[in-house]
Amino acid sequence: MEQQTMVRVAVDAMGGDNAPAAVVEGAVLAVCEDSRVHAVLVGKEDIIREELKKYTYDKERISVVDAGEVITNDEAPVMAIRRKKDSSIVKAMNLVKNNEADAFVSAGSTGAILVGAQLIIGRLPGVERPPLAPLIPTETGVALLIDCGANVDARPSHLVQFARMGSVYMEHVLGVRNPRVAIVNIGAEEEKGNTLVKGTFPLLKNCNEINFTGSIEARDIPSGAADVIVCEAFVGNVILKLYEGLASTLLSTVKKGMMSTFRSKVGALLVKPALKKTLKSMDTAEYGGAPMLGLKGLVVKVHGSSEKAEMKNAILQCIAFKEQNISEKIRTSIEVNENK
Amino acid sequence: MEQQTMVRVAVDAMGGDNAPAAVVEGAVLAVCEDSRVHAVLVGKEDIIREELKKYTYDKERISVVDAGEVITNDEAPVMAIRRKKDSSIVKAMNLVKNNEADAFVSAGSTGAILVGAQLIIGRLPGVERPPLAPLIPTETGVALLIDCGANVDARPSHLVQFARMGSVYMEHVLGVRNPRVAIVNIGAEEEKGNTLVKGTFPLLKNCNEINFTGSIEARDIPSGAADVIVCEAFVGNVILKLYEGLASTLLSTVKKGMMSTFRSKVGALLVKPALKKTLKSMDTAEYGGAPMLGLKGLVVKVHGSSEKAEMKNAILQCIAFKEQNISEKIRTSIEVNENK
């Protein structure tokens, strides 16, 4: 029998609003759902062990690495990574660096994760900036929004690399054949846009290895007009956050409307089960975390407010990344296409 | 008896997907709804007169100015404005310039309107860039999103002027006392952001004449966390378009969910009337058009797909602008605050 891959995922047990309880439970759920997962919970050992006692699971596939410190959201990222050597983030990233883990999943400080990933795990050769690339739900499935990280004021060459990395991810992790790559713009025509977009557009047109379909207006993102949505981090962050905010406002408006009359309240009871199921498809939490691409290992950032389901999905997401050897494919794509 | 203000609105009868029918009907509705409105329909006279025959209205308050040419969306704006002297846009803007009209409303080419407004009507003294500032619906009312125009790659001084102009508009046209002004950012802390935002933040903090509340993340825009939302045009355009796209996708998802089972279909019938009413409050079309501020006259850009209701609202919007003397208030605000 062929030997099964074992995917070792270092999990930041102390990161996020619901840590450690939701993180530990998410790891247990992931291990129970897929036999390829080995979770390494990194954080305050005694607390983690206390949480683990609540569950039944394969003891061989969850281990604990003690880390006495925690990096909080208010700390300056660079300083925190440099000083808190015994923090869960730094210790877990060192596991990835030393090849004792394949991936790192955290709901902790985005800043510290982005900085730590570059300083500790390191970029793949040729990669200028590692982007943070969450999946966002669309009417027809999901799209990869690349970049939503902290590296603002990008250059055209960065965006071209984002397009290449995003293509590899969507094709090999999500199984989208020949993914459509588009650049966020304020009009469909080539001459539209700001300096960055105008500088990037012709470069993307010249990339034969990706399926570049041109500009995409923000209006067409939710309907699923592209698979890889390229933009610089400030714009990506605005898109991602507005997605969250607007979805929550619109749904609360729908609810308010349904509860406004006696007649509509009765109708709401009948509509609810079907509606819940459909709306789940537009919930960002369903799609795991945001991978940070272009590193010598996988880093997945999950939302700070994540519950066990999101943690579980983010851990399971690491399987395809390792099995498909995404880091190696990204390294090759950058190397081959930039040295030709 | 005090004499009533007469607000003369030049209307581009040829602009937009539903011109001239929806434009003419919108103008008739505006004239019938408010006795202060005088509409000047600019475009092909014979066609306009033919449309007007369908309605009953005060003939004294709708006039027609013939314009033989039409500027389309595909034309290069600068060239179109320079060459098509007999177009509805150029002729209507000349009415504003020559003080034969107080305002100009159009659903035509955004590019041509933005260019024409600057070349023909002209900026107020001291105004560096006239922003396009649509009202977007929020959970608690509306917010002014400034700038969504075509002037990308803005400088900090532009954004400071947007904040001042937006404050004047929200206070005097919408009646919001001491409007909260926030800058779109990717985090709430002062040190976050791109070069533009970091450069603008301290300048806004020093503006004592506005109620600057700091950064706003895109997530908090729909809930109504600020009244004036300052950003450069590329980001503003992304926010506005994503608002439209996401609202339409989410509502179609809600509908799909409601129609998915027999039980939910029955519920949908009961829910529908109440839901329709509530959702109307989140429909951008309800709030008229986007004013272009900082000009020697008012220009209002309405959506290309506008129907009669949007046209009517955009025309009525011009009343408060004139009665409150907004151009003069903006001129004073820029002059007083930049020369102190």
Key structural traits:
homodimer, 340 residues, alpha/beta, 6-stranded mixed β-sheet, 5-stranded mixed β-sheet, 16% strand
Quaternary structure: homodimer
Order of helices and strands of chain A: EHEHEHHEHEEHEHEEHHEEHH
Number of helices of chain A: 11
Q: What do the pLDDT scores of chain A average to?
A: 91
The largest sheet of chain A, given as strand count, sense and whether it forms a barrel, is: 6 strands, mixed
Largest interface (C-beta under 8 Å): A-B, 62 and 62 residues
- Percent in helix of chain A: 40-55%
Question: How would you describe this protein?
Answer:
- 2 copies of one chain form a homodimer.
- The radius of gyration of chain A is 21 Å and the shape is globular.
- Chain A has 11 helices and 11 strands.
- In chain A, the strands form 2 sheets. Chain A has a 6-stranded mixed beta sheet with strand order 3-2-1-4-11-10, sandwiched between helices.
- In chain A, helix 4 runs parallel beside helix 5, helix 6 packs across helix 7 (195-205) and helix 6 (156-172) crosses helix 11.
- Helices cover 45% and strands 16% of the residues of chain A.
- Chain A has helices at 21-33, 45-52, 77-83, 88-97, 110-121, 156-172, 195-205, 233-258, 262-280, 308-323, 326-338; strands spanning 7-12, 37-43, 62-66, 103-106, 135-138, 141-146, 180-184, 211-216, 228-230, 290-292, 298-301.
- Chain A starts with 6 loop residues before the first strand and ends with a helix.
- In chain A, strand 1 (7-12), helix 1 (21-33) and strand 2 form a beta-alpha-beta unit.
- The first copy, chain A, is an alpha/beta fold and 340 residues long.
- The interface between A and B is large, with 62 and 62 residues.
